[in-house]
Structures are given as structure tokens and as C-alpha cells.
Amino acid sequence: MGIGSAQLEIVDLTPSIGSEVRTDLETLLSGREAATIREILERRGVVFFRGLEISDEQQVAIAKTLGTLVANEGEGGINKISLDEKVNQRAKYLRGSMFWHFDGSLQPLPNLATLLRAVQLSETGGQTEFCNTYQAYEDLPEAEKQEIADLRVVHSAERSQYYVTPEMSYSEIAFWQKSATKTCPIVWEHRSGRKSLLLGATSDYVLDVSVEQSRALLARLRDWATQPQYVYRHEWQPGDLLIWDNTGTMHRVLPYPADSGRLMHRTILAGEEPLQ
Ligand code: OGA
Ligand code: MN
């Protein structure tokens, strides 16, 4: 509680993940505290700012103090996140965000961080949950750390779409199979030396084990990483700006009606760290 620099007050919301950062808009825009915010983000996984009345332009400006924007993501750095096809043509694809994932799992580098601002909320559902994949890794029994140390997982867009459309047609499968797959370690050893678990909805199969073992292991690790002690659930208020460290967390949104009007504005920061 209340630790931080002169211009930031940090309020931790659970022991292992999620902090509210209290400050003013001028401080955020100036970038003076950017290094401290990045440090808090890595340590706490998720930070949010409340009551600041941030515009789209200001959201993008804040993002730029923290890292490099991903090119071609939304207009002017703002992507409209909605399950309503009238608002976002990729609404169906976005339904995949209701399942544990991290952003950019199929990109060359996982995204560094995502900024999400609540423009309009749903009356029901729509909370966003985050789990700390550093802490989840650290708490694994030593034998399990050894068991998974060298395992690699093939991630695919196709796999994540089975959550959205369990009985995909041949042509739907063929469409998603056009996206390149990516092979990632389960244990990500970061430049800092810390390790985190790399799982999520695009995790298709573990290399060199049976199909059954692969499914069981991926489910067991997901269950482990999403236990209540690793999870923070954000109850949104209009205008909240939330940032997650996409390299040390997974997230999912709780279901909400597609026609609820829920609208979030998202800005993504490009990854800086390769996977081994
Ligand atoms: C995302 C995402 C969650 C939400 O934009 O990457 O997962 O709460 N959004 O809308
Ligand atoms: Mn996401």
C-alpha cells in the first residue's frame, strides 16, 4: 500500500497480481514515471488508472512513453474491441478472448503489453481476469519444473478457434490453417532470468508426447496457473485504463452479450523479448 515514487501511489489488490496506480494525467503523459510503471507492470502483471478521463490520443501518447506501438493495429493506434459485428468485423474471432490467452502468441515476439480503456461497459459480465504466469511457474513443485523444462508447444490460430466454433467445417479449418503456426517453449526464460509459463488458447499440442498426454498436460498447467491465488478479476468502471504485462500473464474476459454495447479501446506495445 502506498509505496511508489513521489508522483505515484500504488495500491496492491491481491498478494500476487494487480495494482491500482494513483496519479494524475499530466504525470502519465510526461513519461517521467514510465520506467517505474514498467517495473510495477512486470512485478504486478496488471496495473490500472481510474478517474483520469483519458482520450484516445492521450492513451496512445501514454503507450508511447512505455514502449513501441505495434504497427498497423487499429486506426491511429486504437483498436475497437467489441463482440458486435457492426463495430468490429473481427467480432467473431474476438470471442476467443473469453478463453485464457495472451496477446500476440502467434507473432514473432509476444506483445510486450496491452492497454485497454473502458469506453462503454456491459450491464452484465465483461469483467476481465488475469493470472500471473511468473508466480504460477515459481510455485510449481520442483519435479514438475523439471518435467516441463524442455517441452515445446505448437501454437495455432486453428486451435483457438475450436473454443469459438467447436464444430468447424472443413473450409473453416482450411481458413485458419492458412495462418502460420509457431513453436514456443512452455517455460519462458526471460532476459531478467525469471521464468514464466507460456500457455493459452492457441496452445495446440506438446511436441514429442502422445495426444492424450499433451491434452492432459496443457489442461493441468492451465488449471494450475489460473488458481485463485494467481488471479485478479478487474471490475471495470467507465474510463479505467488498464495495462497488462502480456509476457508474464494470461487473461480472459467473462462472457457478456454481444449487443450489450461494451466497447474497449485497445493499444498494443510491440514485443521486445524473443522466446528461446
Ligand atoms: C484483448 C482482450 C479482453 C476484454 O483485447 O486482447 O483479451 O476484456 N480483451 O475485452
Ligand atoms: Mn487478449
From TrEMBL:
Q: Which residues form the TauD/TfdA-like domain?
A: 10-267
* Name this protein carries in UniProt: Taurine catabolism dioxygenase
Q: Name one Pfam family in it.
A: TauD
Hey, which family's this protein in? Answer: Belongs to the TfdA dioxygenase family.
**SUPFAM superfamilies xref list:** Clavaminate synthase-like (SSF51197)
Cytoplasm: is it a keyword of this entry?
A: no
* Stored InterPro entries: TauD-like_sf, TauD/TfdA-like, TfdA_dioxygenase
For this protein, what is any one GO molecular function term?
Answer: metal ion binding
Q: Does the keyword Membrane apply?
A: no
Sorted alphabetically, the keyword list is: Dioxygenase, Iron, Metal-binding, Oxidoreductase
The cofactors named for this UniProt entry are: Fe(2+)
